[in-house]
Design brief:
The complex is a heterodimer. In chain A, strands 1-2-10-7-8-9 form a 6-stranded mixed beta sheet. A 4-stranded parallel beta sheet of chain A has the order 5-4-3-6, sandwiched between helices. Chain A is built from 10 helices and 10 strands. In chain A, strand 8, helix 7 and strand 9 form a beta-alpha-beta unit. Helix content of chain A is 41%, strand content 17%. By secondary structure, chain A is α/β, with parallel strands linked by helices. By secondary structure, chain B is of the alpha+beta class. Helix content of chain B is 18%, strand content 28%. Chain B is built from 2 helices and 7 strands, in the order ββααβββββ. In chain B, strands 2-1-7-5-6 form a 5-stranded mixed beta sheet, covered by helices on one side. The termini of chain B are far apart. The chains are: A alpha/beta, B alpha+beta. At the A-B interface, helix 4, strand 8, helix 7 and strand 9 of A face strand 5, strand 6 and strand 7 of B.
């Protein structure tokens, strides 16, 4: 495969079978490997689409400053592209994220403003909104409410999955900005009768949920629950266990959120097998394991790893 | 009387600091009514006139009850219900 530049190579990721984790030949799991994007995550699709849309709308000109709340991957993708296009990038990132994220952001030339650990990404959103209000010339792309985020999945991730797995029965992805599930989900629902669109949501340690009032929670503006058919909450212990199973059973070194998605996918596959139904389940693997090495997620026993990531934003 | 309900940190003022409590009911609505009778005020932090509050997520055995019938979702002995505030990712 030949491309004119690295940005032209975004998307078009492989879909690989998981023969060892699939319960039976008629209830199969497939992994869409989004770590095969230029900066190693699904967010390259989103960052490129949001920047292209803002350029088209005339919101971005050379030398502009982009501001974005991010737990890491979106920031890293934006940083790479911003550097190539001549934009300055400021990321607001929770302080309880892995060291690799800071290193990668800085390597690509981004500045980082840390938001408090307690409250996780909700706090990063709050801080970014405040900064955007104080600096009206900065461009807040705002992945949680940016239509280009969901649209790029409608236009690329969805069609790629349908082409590679026309018999798809389920699509499972992590729930962060909700963009992946909204865009891919809408496309698949339009083209595959009865397809199930399933969210796998990380269940963090208590610190991440913060101590603010329940009414100060956060639901991304992109979220439309009518696109989903179910939504699972996956504990750190289950996500870590499945992340390791991906390594040991299938040879796939993925990030911890992938474990979350695999856990939900296996539950769906087992349910289908018990009912005697066919299942072809596509799992979106958002990133590789590299950025999580320093968290200790892959070292020692599962209990040790779980203790180490308590309080971290691991997805 | 054997449904475990996990309570998030910010609502533990209602449960005397307990991380999880026991309650009973046939549906999520019944369970919340029972919770409120044991821990006065907790119910209205979870539901309003329109159903579950916007930033409250309730999971029945790790599955979001909004996709299982909402407040009408059936619960039974041995189930685990987890209450969490909505958070962002990305």
């Amino acid at each position: 495969m030949r491309f004119d530049s690295i940005l032209d190579s975004v998307g078009g990721t492989p879909l690989v079978g998981l023969p060892h984790l699939s319960p039976s030949p008629s209830t199969r799991l497939w992994a869409k490997l989004e770590d095969r994007n230029p900066t190693g995550s699904v967010k390259d699709r989103v960052a490129l689409a949001m920047i292209a849309a803002a350029e088209k709308e005339g919101r971005l000109a050379k030398g502009a400053t982009i501001l974005e709340p991010t737990s890491g991957n979106t920031g890293i993708s934006l940083a790479m592209i911003a550097q190539l296009r001549g934009y300055r990038l400021i990321c607001v990132m929770p302080e309880n994220t892995s060291a690799e994220r800071t290193q990668l952001l800085q390597m690509f030339g981004a500045s980082i403003i840390y938001s408090p650990a307690a409250g996780g990404s909700n706090e990063a959103v709050r801080v970014a909104r405040k900064l955007a209000g104080e600096n009206p010339d900065w461009v807040l792309l705002y992945q949680y409410g940016n239509e280009a985020n969901a649209r790029v999945h409608y236009e690329s991730t969805g069609p790629e999955l349908l082409a590679d797995l026309p018999e798809i029965t389920h699509f499972v992805a992590g729930l962060g900005t909700t963009g992946t599930l909204m865009g891919t989900g809408r496309f698949l629902r339009e083209h595959v009768a009865g397809v199930q669109i399933v969210a796998a949501e990380p269940r963090y340690g208590e610190l991440v949920y913060g101590l603010r009032n329940m009414d100060e929670g956060f639901v991304p503006e992109l979220y439309d629950d009518s696109v989903l058919t179910s939504r699972f909450s996956v504990s750190a212990a289950d996500a870590l266990r499945r992340t390791r199973e991906l390594v040991h059973e299938e040879g796939i070194f993925a990030g911890i959120s992938a474990g979350c998605v695999v856990h939900a996918g296996i539950a769906l596959a087992e349910r289908a097998r018990a009912l005697g139904e066919r299942a072809e389940i596509a799992l979106l693997i958002a990133d590789g394991g590299w950025k999580y090495l320093s968290t200790g997620a892959f070292a020692g026993t599962l209990a040790e790893a779980e203790a180490r990531i308590e309080g971290e934003l691991w997805a | 009387m054997a449904i475990e309900v996990r309570i998030p940190t910010i609502l533990r003022t209602y449960t005397g600091g307990a991380k999880s409590v026991q309650a009973s009911g046939d549906t999520i609505a019944g369970l919340i009514a029972d919770l409120d009778s044991q821990h006065t005020g907790l119910g209205e932090r979870l539901v309003d006139g329109a159903g579950l509050r916007r930033f409250v997520n309730v999971y029945l055995n790790d599955e979001d009850v909004r996709f299982l019938g909402g407040l009408d979702a059936r619960v039974k002995d041995g189930d685990t219900v987890t209450v969490l505030p909505a958070v962002a990712g990305g």
